[in-house]
Structure prediction request, 245 residues.
Amino acid sequence: MLELRDLRKNYGKKTALAGVNLIFRQGIYGLLGPNGAGKSTMMNVIADVLDASAGEVLYDGQPIKKLGAQYRKKIAYLPQRVGYYADFTAEKTLAYFAGLRGVEKEEVDERIKYSLEAVNLTDAAKSRVGTFSGGMKQRLGIAITLVSDPEILILDEPTVGLDPKERIKFRNILVGLASEKTIILSTHIVSDVENIADQIILIKEGRIIGSGSKGEINGMLGDKRSEDTTLEDVYMNFYDERQEG
Prediction:
């Protein structure tokens, strides 16, 4: 279990996280909010890439700062942009990251095979990454997170730049993994998470303004949402009403 306890992050006078309290178990958690809401900051703190200004992140009841490398071996973080070596094949890329993450040598080949199969890239295993489409590179990014068999996947805006078909493929991959892993997915695209997330978390200005299942969130939003309404419109209006209330 992963727990955020009164998590705060300030950049000078700017507050990026303002006392966030959340618990993550197995399943898919969708962080929804407009750009600048604090999603990336939260994920960087969870991934132990960024230090919080106050509060703490706990894994199975223990502060991650005390667990150190023991915690980092259990997580995999996919940032918005991943750098690749264009001349590496998909296999070589995964072998490289497996080595960085301490995968035992006798397990590397099996982990690479599993990771490529999970993201439907087996046929492209020996192709150079420089020839990949944007969607294939995003799927390779997911394979990189899987190669070390982490318990927690942290995915920051992973569908940016993907066409609708690639986004559907990506969501199907996550659903297949959710029964045995904790997946934290940030996005500003409602459709990326609304039909697959076990819990949707609404965030704006560093604060959690609502959380629950799709049905519970829709109940909070009432009839304000339509297919043409943007996420910013919906959640800004919702946030303003909560503040007034």
